[in-house]
Amino acid sequence: MAFPQPSISAYALVTGASQGIGEAIARKLAAAGHNLILVARREDVLMRIADELAATHGVNVEVFAADLSKERDVTALIEHIENRTVSICVNSAGIASFGPFITADWDYEVNQFNLNATAVFRITKAVLDQMVERGSGALCNVGSAAGNSPIPNNATYVFTKAGVNTFTESLHYELKPLGVHCTLLAPGPVREAEIPEEEQTFVDKLVPDFLWTTYESCAEDTLRAMRKNKRRVVPGPLSKAMDVVSTYAPRGSLAPLIGSFYEKMGEEQRA
What we know:
Elements: E1 10-15, H1 20-31, E2 35-40, H2 43-57, E3 61-65, H3 71-81, E4 85-91, H4 106-134, E5 137-142, H5 155-175, E6 180-185, E7 190-191, H6 202-206, E8 213-214, H7 215-227, E9 232-233, H8 237-248, H9 251-270
Helix pairs in contact: 1-2, 1-7, 3-4, 4-5
């Protein structure tokens, strides 16, 4: 049960590939020689990344612009990959909201659920249909350390990420004897290595730089874990601390404390 090697006829599918974790993982996969199918909403950004990776690494890079919060776009992507050999899949696309659920923008909350949960669910099934039949492949779904516990003012996000966490870890055990690697990436806060002072949020200013996980280091940790077929990877010191605290601390006291923190994030987001 080996991790898929680069092949002229196979592709690594990466959603949320226009920025953040998705882009960083796509870059690492291209550097290792894997062809790519890059998925995100912003076609112009994807094209720029695709041109760069193809020129730098000599790989074939396809761009599939799609809003995966929309059922029709997910369906179109699934139909597209029916004609491709997908050896690796990284479901990284996702969004979050902060603030009270009852006063949240309902359309945004529905889109958040569809993107973070429903799209992951459907794309996972589509790629596993291929991988299991071949007896090889690697899947990584991006959940979150936030999915370990209740977080007031982040309810829809933790709803989706708790589902992705347990769904993916359950699949790990199902797929292991079938030859398919399956890893959950459950990060805490991840960001660029350097953030201009004028763009820093109060979280950036509150947490020392050495505790942050960068997108690049997160991608390295994730691919290392996928190659070893680890069930779960939590990259970086801050993420690991959040993972332990959210798993073992008393929820009755932890939830209100974290909820107040997320309430401030919501106020900053709306400002």
